[in-house]
């Protein structure tokens, strides 16, 4: 059965004379020249234009069990893939429900803000034969609509059956987040592949770090709420309830830990759970870092506790994940940027015989680097040094060329 999707209607068409690919139930024609990323539960295609500063990403999801109706399936998928990740509060705009050969299809769209600019999410949900297939497209420019339409228009769905590859593997785990989390963030590089096997990806809400069957999510920092400052246990349980509990069914909380003797303090929880979307059994570890009234949360997900313990034999090993929050920059990323640094030090002297003050020595420096398009830069360096009252001053300006490479 061949099902053709447009943004508003679904129709049948003859096979296209182009190369196709198949992911789970979905056969389609991928967009040419787009970056492909394959995960366990979705496959995505990304295109960015660093000159126009535009981006688009299309994600095709592995089929999951239907909730019984196209309305329930769409509402659930919209919340998981669009509303929650991108904070879309308004109801999606929809063209209604279409039917084709045992499948029902609903397409909806909504807008959200990213990097202070408007972006759009378009979700196509296909429900039938007891399964759901979702295709999510997000972009910040209408320039990508022809490519989105071409991919949607090429989709061919297989009917689940004895020979259909419906994954029930519980030995590996990949977080079922929208692939849109990896979309264009204004910089040339949003992924890093390290020599020891760890891979990092910049997303909208966190940096995702993975190696083998371990996936970690380092959520971006946020201010510590005033009502959490005086109760360590409430602080730990509160962030668990906000980040972990809505996405998992907790089976058995195995470990709760608070250590106020360590710096930074250790707020930690560990549990067996079931992922609410994939229905896979997983082991979760969750550590909270609080420093200078800012909170950073790290979630680690593994198939089993033994898998987790093999990579993180103690709580402190979770901190090592921050070493993978590093990404290269290109010459275009640096152009237009200004870096400043200043430093001041004082040393006061006393006579060892009389105890009288013998003067104060001070040193102060200021450096400024400014990078321009075309690979040129200018730097200014100012400072002073010496005993108060007889200090020496210096100032220097440098100009030259610069380059940047992907480390």
Please give a structural write-up.
This protein is mostly beta strands. It folds into three domains: 4-168, Mog1/PsbP, alpha/beta/alpha sandwich (Protein Transport Mog1p, Chain A, 3-Layer(aba) Sandwich); 189-324, Mog1/PsbP, alpha/beta/alpha sandwich (Protein Transport Mog1p, Chain A, 3-Layer(aba) Sandwich); 331-401. It is built from five helices and 26 strands. It has helices spanning 70-86, 145-153, 232-244, 305-311, 331-334, and strands spanning 4-5, 10-11, 21-23, 26-28, 35-38, 42-49, 54-61, 64-65, 93-100, 103-114, 117-128, 131-139, 156-157, 191-193, 199-202, 206-211, 214-219, 222-223, 248-259, 266-275, 281-291, 294-302, 338-350, 357-372, 376-387, 392-401. Strands 14, 15, 16, 17, 18, 19, 20, 21 and 22 form a nine-stranded antiparallel beta sheet that branches. Strands 5, 6, 7, 8, 9, 10, 11 and 12 form an eight-stranded antiparallel beta sheet that branches. Strand 5 and strand 6 (42-49) form a beta hairpin. The model is unreliable at 1-17 and 162-182 (pLDDT under 50).
Structure at a glance:
With 407 residues, this protein is mainly beta.
Task: Annotate the secondary structure layout.
Elements: E1 4-5, E2 10-11, E3 21-23, E4 26-28, E5 35-38, E6 42-49, E7 54-61, E8 64-65, H1 70-86, E9 93-100, E10 103-114, E11 117-128, E12 131-139, H2 145-153, E13 156-157, E14 191-193, E15 199-202, E16 206-211, E17 214-219, E18 222-223, H3 232-244, E19 248-259, E20 266-275, E21 281-291, E22 294-302, H4 305-311, H5 331-334, E23 338-350, E24 357-372, E25 376-387, E26 392-401
Antiparallel strand pairs: 1-2, 3-4, 4-13, 5-6, 6-7, 7-12, 8-12, 9-10, 10-11, 11-12, 14-15, 15-16, 16-17, 17-22, 18-22, 19-20, 20-21, 21-22, 23-24, 24-25, 25-26
């Amino acid at each position: 059965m061949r099902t053709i999707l447009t943004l508003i209607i679904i129709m049948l068409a003859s096979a296209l004379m182009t190369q196709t690919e198949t992911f789970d139930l979905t056969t389609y024609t991928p967009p040419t020249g787009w970056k492909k990323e394959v995960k366990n539960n979705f496959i995505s295609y990304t295109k960015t234009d660093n000159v126009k500063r535009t981006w688009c990403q299309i994600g095709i999801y592995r089929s999951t069990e239907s909730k019984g109706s196209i309305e329930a399936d769409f509402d659930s998928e919209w919340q998981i893939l669009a509303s929650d990740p991108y904070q879309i509060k308004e109801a999606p705009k929809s063209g209604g429900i279409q039917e084709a050969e045992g499948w029902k299809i609903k397409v909806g769209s909504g807008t959200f803000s990213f990097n202070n600019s408007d972006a759009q999410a378009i979700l196509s949900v296909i429900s039938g034969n007891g399964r759901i297939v979702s295709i999510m497209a997000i972009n910040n420019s209408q320039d990508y609509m022809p490519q989105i339409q071409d991919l949607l228009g090429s989709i061919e769905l297989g009917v689940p059956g004895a020979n259909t590859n419906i994954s029930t593997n519980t030995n590996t785990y990949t977080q079922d987040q929208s692939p849109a989390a990896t979309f264009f963030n204004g910089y040339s590089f949003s992924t890093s592949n390290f020599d020891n096997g760890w891979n990092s990806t910049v997303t909208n809400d966190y940096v995702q770090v993975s190696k083998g069957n371990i996936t970690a999510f380092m959520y971006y920092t946020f201010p510590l709420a005033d009502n959490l400052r005086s109760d360590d246990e409430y602080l730990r349980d509160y962030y668990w309830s906000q980040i972990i509990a809505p996405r998992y069914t907790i089976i058995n909380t195995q470990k709760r830990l608070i250590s106020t003797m360590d710096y930074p303090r250790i707020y930690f929880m560990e549990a067996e759970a079931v992922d609410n979307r994939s229905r896979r059994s997983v082991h979760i570890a969750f550590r909270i870092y609080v420093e200078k009234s800012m909170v950073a949360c790290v979630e680690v997900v593994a198939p089993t506790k033994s898998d987790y313990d093999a990579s993180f034999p103690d709580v402190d090993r979770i901190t090592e994940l921050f070493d993978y929050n590093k990404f290269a920059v290109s010459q275009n990323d640096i152009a237009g940027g200004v870096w400043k640094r200043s430093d001041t030090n004082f040393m006061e002297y006393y006579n060892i015989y009389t105890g009288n003050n013998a003067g104060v020595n001070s040193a102060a420096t200021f450096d400024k680097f400014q990078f321009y398009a075309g690979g040129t830069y200018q730097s200014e360096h100012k400072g002073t040094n010496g005993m108060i009252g007889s200090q020496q001053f210096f100032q220097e300006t440098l100009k030259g060329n610069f380059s940047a490479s992907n480390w």
